Amino acid sequence: MKKTIYSIALAMAALVAMQSCTDDESTYGIDHTSIVINGIDSKYDVISFAGKHLQINPTVNSTFPESDLEYRWYMYNPNKGNMAGKDTAEVVSTDRNLDMEVKLLDGKYSFYYEVASKSTGYSQRSDIFEVTSASILSKGFYVLKENSEGNTDVDLYSTSENTLYADLLATRSTGALKGKPRALDIIPYLCYVNPDDGENAGGTCLSITTESDKVKWYRILDMTPIKDETNCTYDNKTDRKPYRTVYGDWSIYYFAGDGVYSTYNYSIMPSIGAFGTFGDTGSSIHIATAPSTTHSMVYWNETTKMFSFVDYNGSYYPTTDENYMPLGSYNLECIKALASYAGGETCCFLMKDPATGNRQLYFFSVGYGGAILTEVRDIDPALHAANANLIAVNGQQATIMYCIDNNRLYAYDLGGVNPERELPLQGIPANEQITYIANRWFNAGDTWDYLFIGTQSGDTYKVYMYEMVGGEPVGQPVKTISGKGKLRKVDYADPEITYPDITPLLDD
User: Fold this and answer.
1) DSSP state of 66
2) Of 5, 134, 137, 155, which one has the greatest count of Cβ atoms within 10 A?
3) What pLDDT shows up at residue 449?
4) Residue 180 CA to chain centroid, in angstroms?
5) Phi/psi zone of residue 192: left (φ > 0), alpha (ψ -120 to 50 degrees), beta?
6) d(CA 482, CA 468)
7) Which pLDDT does position 88 carry in this prediction?
8) Paired strand residues for 359
9) How far is it, in rounded angstroms, from Cα 226 to Cα 231?
10) Measured in Å, how far apart are the chain's first and last C-alpha atoms?
11) Cα–Cα distances in Å, from 115 out to 64, 97, 169, 245, 273?
12) Is 400 exposed, middle or buried (CB count within 10 Å of its CB: 0-12, 13-18, 19+)?
């Protein structure tokens, strides 16, 4: 028994001795070199090319004298591909505090801060922090419009500045684009030849087409034109009808009157960005995308009067019936392509018989191997959906088709269960004519999901943005934009848009 007690006491004494060694703060046998960095946030948002500065004042506590310390701020520049490691980062400042005028292309940049002792080489660095850079023109709601001369221009409501910048093509680029507006698309990662240095580059661009068959792509950073119908394809053909440009998963697609063209996006394969044809003999602006198939697309071919399909890798397939027999042509007019992702995936096209005026919905099941026609549904001529002059679809909250008939909003159930019903709209004066409707959302950063209602009164347009519950607008508009010109479409730009799911592809 005494032996056991003695052994326990000896073990406890040893533990106390070890603890004493651990807690000893004397300098005997211990190197007390220390650099501790604090006061740097994990994320910063900056506006570039506007004379603004990124300013960071970290706290540095060190056992070294100030005269022995040196400082470096490092940046990984994704536009130069240098994300491999420390040795590939650029030194952007050697000051203790960062005070850097922001002249960065739009995108996300990774930074870190390093403090080192000149005499010993001992160093410490901060955690990597993210800087999202956007020019004033790179974030906000773009309004495609017809100006007073009957040509195409765009306005931007900057969400960073809460300011409307009007007539950007006329005031910041090469002038309004000839003809009435046809389509506006905002394309991340579009490859192009940088007009500043002649090198291959990539970034977010605006694609604008007009009813005079003009097309031009603009670098959203500063509205510099980077390609048009004379140099957008490898064949340099200039007389094709341009419909629109669509951001897919791996590829970016140019839908034209003589077929669909594609190029890989900049993150997959940097290039000069010329589009190459892959198949089909026509297309249109009417396109529905299927996220479940890595954003493959079903579209209406206005040339052949057929439904067609393109997969995420740029391969063309004909559409089929449920017996896998290819669909033929239809003597129909396409009113709208509709895609809803509420509770699954609904892909359909609202079609019109030009002889009778009757409308039908053509429903497709979309897979990696193509699109299968599963249902053709007649629209009751007595419904507002059969007569509406404006059509849209809810994307995330409900499988409903929006219809504007006689300046009123109605909901048609694409599931075929609920009866058509009116959805009241608050806050719109009676003298304003509804000329536009769309459901647009943003699924990154500060997420939102709005029903857009556009109106026209004389030469003034307004865009009312409503929050929704179950796809139905609630309350007063949460945001209103107003400008001069005839409204055609509204789209949203943001440096956070890096994947197609973040914002929808709409046929609007």
Assistant:
1) G
2) 134
3) 99
4) 25
5) beta
6) 21
7) 75
8) 352
9) 9
10) 90
11) 11, 11, 46, 47, 41
12) buried
The alpha carbons of the chain give a radius of gyration, in whole angstroms, of 29
Q: Which two tokens stand for residue 407?
A: 């300046």
* Encoded amino acid at 450, one letter: Y
Taking the C-alpha atoms of 480, 486, 488 and 493 in order, what is their torsion angle to the nearest 10 degrees? -50
* Contact status, residue 181 vs residue 210, Cβ threshold 8 Å: yes
- Residue ranges and CATH numbers for the domains of the chain are 35-134 (2.60.40.10), 136-277 (no CATH)
Strand-pairing partners, residue 390, are: 404
CB 261 within 8 Å of CB 185: no
pTM above threshold 0.90: no
pLDDT along the chain (508 residues), means of 10: 37 38 33 88 91 96 96 84 58 97 88 97 95 91 98 96 96 98 97 91 95 98 95 90 94 94 91 86 95 94 96 88 95 98 96 98 95 98 98 98 99 96 97 98 95 98 99 98 99 92 94
User: Which among 327, 466, 295 is positioned nearest to 394, based on CA atoms?
Assistant: 466
Q: Which two tokens stand for residue 93?
A: 């400042």
- The per-residue pLDDT for 80 is 58
| CA 322 – CA 308 distance, rounded (Å) | 15
- SS3 readout for 95-132: CCCEEEECCCCCEEEEEEEEEEECCCCCEEECCCEEEE
How many CA atoms are closer than 13 Å to the CA of 214, on its beta-carbon side?
13
Q: What pLDDT was estimated at residue 84?
A: 40
Judge whether 247 and 500 are in contact, CB under 8 Å: yes
State the Cα–Cα distance between residues 204 and 140, nearest whole angstrom: 13
pLDDT at 77: 79
DSSP symbols for 423-488 = ----S--TTPEEEEEEEEEE-SSS-EEEEEEEEEETTEEEEEEE-EETTEE-SS-SEEEEEESEEE
pLDDT confidence of residue 13: 39
131 half-sphere exposure, CB direction, 13 A CA radius: 26
- In the three-class reduction of DSSP (H, G, I as helix; E, B as strand; rest coil), residue 79 is classed as helix
The residue ranges of DSSP E strands in 118-229, in sequence order, are 123-125, 129-135, 140-146, 152-158, 163-165, 181-193, 200-210, 215-219, 224-228
What pLDDT does residue 498 have?
87
Give phi and psi for 228, each to the nearest 5: -150, -165
Six-digit token pair at 326? Answer: 């290819």
